[in-house]
Structure formats: structure tokens, C-alpha cells
Amino acid sequence: MALPLPGTLTGRLVTLEPLSHAHHDGLVDAARDGELWNLWYTAVPTPDGMGAEIDRRLSLQDSGSMIPFTSRRNDTGAIIGMTTFMNIDAGVPRVEIGSTWNAVSAQGSGTNPDAKLLMLEHAFDTWGCPAVEFRTDFHNVQSRAAIERLGARQDGVLRAHLRMPGYLRDTVVFSITAPEWAGVRVGLERRIERHIGRRLAQSTPETAE
């Protein structure tokens, strides 16, 4: 049993395209924006390893445990990163939103909350998930804060959960449940509106006196 593939998800600031090898060069450029692979508490592929990472994610899609996307900014058309539905349990159904990374220049642009809104809408409104999960490294304070800003609540910490290069990772688990979704949606929509408003204000020339 597998969840039906969503296809392309289009928001106001970002578009999530089904991952393919055609995205390779754009993803390499996005990862180089901030040299994200050097962040020890997250797993971002190096330029040389991008092809293998695309293969890995597509293989997991074939097995039914992951649905991977490439993220693209709507204003510039630039590829900015990757995200996925992962650890899919189609029987519940329940999914985790994760394996996400974004170019440094896109951080704070509103593209991340817009992507999360698209994915949460699909998970709750199309697939009928009773809950959607998020996980991150205990040491990744930025990621933990971003997940909490979405409106997710912390479920707990899985101690010594994953073996990472040089250490055992403690994994922090968050979730949003179906009854909480309406409030989370409103919060995300307001955040996106603020980003759009700031962009409009910056692009509008001042009227000469």
C-alpha cells in the first residue's frame, strides 16, 4: 500500500516539484549557497554527492517510504533546496516532513513556511493524516525553533537515536495533529502574508514630493 503521489505543489512563494535528476545542477548551486554540507548537525549532500543523494531519495520513493521534492522560488525561478514526506505509514496514514535543507540566501524569505503550508495541506486535507511529524537533531537549535514556529508541539526526545559521523544523535520529535491543523494553517498564512507585504513594500518606489 502506498500513498498517491501529489505531483507539483504550487504556493505563493515557492513551488515543490517532484525530485528528478534534471534538478541536479540547481541543487548543487543551492547547496553551495552557504556551503551547507559543512554544518555538522545536519546532513546536506556535497556537490560531488548530490547525484547519489538524488538516487537515494528516488529509491526510497520507489519503496513507498519517501516522496521527495525540489524547492524552487517563484520570484526568481531558482532552485533553493530539497524537502520530503518521509517515514510514510500509508496504513494510518501518517507522514514525517523532513530531510529538508534550503540555501542560505532563501532563509528568512518566507519560502520555508510556504512549503510547509503546501505539504501540511496535502497531508491533512488530501491524504487525511491524523498527525504529521517533524524530527531534528537536538543540537540543531535553528531547526527546532523553526519547527516550533510552525505550531508543532514537542512529543519527546529519542536519546542516542541515530549514529552520525563522530557522535550518537539525540532526536527531538514534534508533531501537529488534525485538530490543531486549522490554527496552524492560519498562523502560516499570516506569516506568508507578512513576507509578501514586505516584498511589496521593498519593490514599490517612494513617491516624489
From TrEMBL:
One of its GO terms (molecular function) is acyltransferase activity, transferring groups other than amino-acyl groups. Residues 14-153 form the N-acetyltransferase domain. Gene3D superfamilies: 3.40.630.30. InterPro entries: Acyl_CoA_acyltransferase, GNAT_dom. Pfam families: Acetyltransf_3. This is GNAT family N-acetyltransferase. It comes from Leucobacter tardus.
